[in-house]
Design goal:
With 318 residues, this protein is mostly beta strands. Helices cover 0% and strands 56% of the residues. β10 and β11 form a beta hairpin. The chain starts with 15 loop residues before the first strand and ends with a strand.
Length: 318
């Protein structure tokens, strides 16, 4: 069993004091920044051994008001600090789950008192800090071209950071086709999400341009909803403005056979030149490849189709 031996009153003891705490970059909730503390040995004796330093985020200059689970410790480090000498400790700190506002960063040297010192009261230094936070807002949702069921559509949304801090990282944005301005009424097959990396400063914007294929739903009035950060990967001051809905009218084609004709005398076993005229009487354009057919029937219905009397032809429109 180890025995602790108290130092003699006249021993040349060290005295660690945090003399400076500062950071680099804008402190933003949910983001990383560099924090630094400078520790000076004011005692007459050298500070030798291993100890742990810590950064604490607090709502006041006191450790008793530390924000729960928002500390940063550097593992036990070995030092040999002569009298009046200093060392600098710099680390990357990510402030997750913290709201924006006024706080203090407290640098704490030798947090567990591993080093015997002449004075432990100066092992901390508190510096006020203002934490910013981003706020992504969808400011515009547009589409170009005719919106036709089952066809591609070019869609676009503009997202602006109206918060006090930058937004950085990768998150999902999405477009949703809905029967109302609410995401709760999204139609089946009408959700399209995309992940991209962004760095968006305060008052900065980015644009999402995508091509989506509209689902096969009935024609009529719908809403196209743009959603920024749909999975809430970014810590924001509010998520209430992450959507914007704009009305959209979906059309559909309706191909109708206008006429069927032939040239020459129809003779069994001989070639016959046939003509089919098809008109789109629908509200939307028809595009893509499909098959037209000529069918020889014993009556005016498809049910009377004769054996080997069907002739298919691939065709396409654009």
């Amino acid at each position: 069993m180890g025995v602790f031996v108290a130092p003699r009153a006249n021993a040349q003891l060290p005295d660690l004091a945090v003399t400076s705490v500062y950071w680099t970059g804008q402190p933003v909730a949910g983001q990383s920044f560099m924090v630094t503390m400078v520790v000076t040995n004011f005692g007459p004796g050298a500070a030798s051994g291993g100890w742990i330093d810590e950064w604490v985020l607090s709502t006041s200059s006191s450790l008793t008001n530390a924000v729960a689970n928002v500390t940063l410790q550097l593992g036990r480090q070995s030092h040999s600090i002569a009298p009046n000498a200093s060392y600098t400790n710099t680390q990357t700190w990510t402030l997750s789950g913290v709201p924006s506002g006024q706080f203090y960063v407290i640098g704490f040297a030798d947090v567990f008192n591993n080093l015997v010192e002449s004075d432990e009261s100066n092992n901390t230094l508190a510096v006020p800090i203002t934490l910013a936070i981003p706020d992504l807002a969808v400011t515009s949702v547009t589409f170009s071209g005719e919106a036709v069921v089952g066809q591609p559509l070019t869609v676009s949304m503009v997202v602006t950071n109206i918060g006090s801090g930058f937004a950085n990282g990768a998150w999902y944005d999405e477009f949703v086709l809905s029967s109302s301005p609410s995401l709760a009424d999204a139609v089946p097959g009408g959700t399209f999400n995309f992940t991209l990396s962004h760095t968006v400063p305060t008052n900065g914007s980015y644009t999402v341009n995508q091509n989506i294929t509209l689902p096969a739903v009935p024609v009529g009035q719908y809403y196209l909803i743009g959603v920024a950060d749909d999975q809430n990967n970014v810590e924001e001051s509010t998520y209430a403005n992450n959507t914007q809905a704009v009305p959209i009218t979906l059309a559909a084609p309706d191909l109708a056979v206008a006429s069927v004709s032939w040239a020459g005398q129809p003779v069994a076993g001989q070639l016959l030149a046939l003509t089919l005229v098809v008109t789109n009487i629908g509200s939307g354009f028809a595009s893509g490849e499909h098959y037209d057919a000529f069918i020889l029937s014993s009556n005016a219905t498809l049910a009377g189709e004769v054996p080997n009397g069907r002739f298919l032809y691939a065709t396409s429109q654009s």
